[in-house]
Design goal:
CATH superfamily: MetI-like
Number of helices: 14
CATH architecture: Orthogonal Bundle
Helix content: over 70%
Number of domains: 1
CATH class: Mainly Alpha
CATH topology: MetI-like fold
Distance between the termini: 28 Å
Largest sheet: none
Structural class: mainly alpha
């Protein structure tokens, strides 16, 4: 018997006839992979690093507009803006991956444990996470950045705290609904330990939304890192970072020096848009209800 399109797995249906949101997801994936490629190979594109060509160490002109030699122009200190933008992507990806990974590593197990065990532990964790969730993410990150100081790891810690409640709440709610399923009750009846139930039977049934949260939080983390850098609280000044470069560039913007602001800002915007499109597309891909609604619209 021939296999019909209706019987094909969702992935193959997507590959054969992607809708608009799925096409946008592919665009977001392409943009994200492009920036990952640039960040990874930044030393190849600019072998002299993010400062300036050593041959021009004392002769780089300041506020040089974009040209064949300086693609994105130079800053008020003679830095090559193209180099700073490339290595800024590298620093941003390092911080973003660390921040989202830390929040996921903490939030997912806490959500599973809270939803599965319930009781006083669940109430206490709900109170703590709801209290953190009510605070604006940027404000919380700024406050923590004052405490932990500058640096890639410190910036990641300051940013990650704001995202832990999101992973916790999503995973906890899934766990509460799944723990009453027959296969969980069967595992309990067979004497499976709590850890066995959590990580063998529950884990893969409650993490469907985690990749979506990961990409959306990564997009937001880039903006938060830019805000920290703009306030002078993110990475050390000697490390290229888009927020810090934008702060320095704004001083020259009224004089018509537009390129030092345009290129770092445009790069940050494109990376955030790419991750956001990827996250929204993944949300539809893992959410059956959204897929049904899109089929009805068709």
């Amino acid at each position: 018997m021939a296999i019909t399109k209706r019987q094909l797995p969702t992935f193959f249906q997507f590959a054969q006839n992607p809708n608009l949101s799925q096409k946008l997801m592919l665009v977001g994936l392409a943009i994200t992979l492009f920036f990952i490629f640039l960040a990874f190979f930044a030393p190849v594109f600019q072998a002299w690093g993010w400062l300036q060509n050593p041959k021009d160490f004392l002769s780089n002109p300041i506020h040089q507009p974009p040209s064949a030699k300086y693609w994105f122009g130079t800053s008020r200190l003679g830095y090559d803006v193209f180099s700073r933008t490339l290595f800024g992507a590298q620093a941003a990806l390092q911080v973003v991956i660390l921040a989202t990974a830390l929040s996921m590593i903490i939030g997912v197990p806490l959500g599973m444990l809270s939803g599965y065990l319930g009781g006083k532990l669940d109430k206490v964790l709900l109170f703590i996470m709801d209290s953190i969730y009510t605070l604006p993410g940027l404000l919380l990150s700024v406050t923590l950045a004052f405490v932990v100081g500058r640096g890639i790891l410190n910036a990641a810690i300051a940013i990650s705290i704001a995202y832990i409640p999101q992973y916790y709440r999503v995973v906890r709610n899934h766990t509460v609904s799944v723990k009453t399923e027959v296969f969980i009750e069967a595992a309990q009846a067979m004497g499976a330990s709590t850890l066995t139930v959590l990580f063998r039977y529950l884990f893969f049934n409650v993490i469907q939304s985690v990749p979506v949260l990961f990409t959306l939080n990564a997009a937001d983390a880039i903006l938060v890192l830019g805000g920290l850098g703009f306030l002078g609280l993110g990475l050390p000044e000697e490390v290229p970072e888009w927020g810090h470069d934008l702060k320095q560039a704004l001083e020259a913007l009224p004089t018509g020096i537009w390129w030092t602001t345009l290129f770092p800002g445009l790069t940050m915007t494109c990376m955030v848009v790419g991750l956001s499109l990827l996250g929204e597309g993944l949300n539809e891909f893992v959410n059956p209800r959204l897929r049904r609604e899109n089929r009805i619209r068709k």
